[in-house]
Amino acid sequence: MDHNMNSLVLAYLGDSIYEILIREYLIYQNICKVDELQKEAVKYVSAKAQSNFLKELEENNLLTEEEINIVKRARNHKGSRHPKNTDIVTYKRSTGLEALFGYHYLNGNFERIKELITKMIGEDYVYIWEKCCTRDNRNKKEN
Fold this sequence. Notes:
With 143 residues, the chain is an all-alpha fold. It has helices at 7-27, 34-45, 47-59, 65-75, 88-106, 110-121, 124-142. Helix 3 (47-59) packs across helix 5 and helix 6 (110-121) packs antiparallel against helix 7. It is globular, with a radius of gyration of 16 Å.
């Protein structure tokens, strides 16, 4: 993938990848009511939660130099628009995290996505990831 791709395009894709992984995780937690799923999802997918997660990754030196550059490009992208419920710094940091997920998805770095999401959620996620990968491989064999 071109390393010069617009960082907001990466964030656009990464936002959806990140959110589907969180939604899948919550469903496997046996939360069956949509309003409960939504309340729990906000704990992970809000700009504040994403910004905090990025901060944790940075403080623990869990990002590669390449990943730091992707985050910085997205975070520093010009533009002053942001949701009313968050400040511009938090919003830009969350955009950096989303760009990171988009970048890894486009490059097929699914193991790295698993590592990052596991750092956030914990080892519970490994089981869910493996279960979904097994399901996916079984479907491919049937076709």
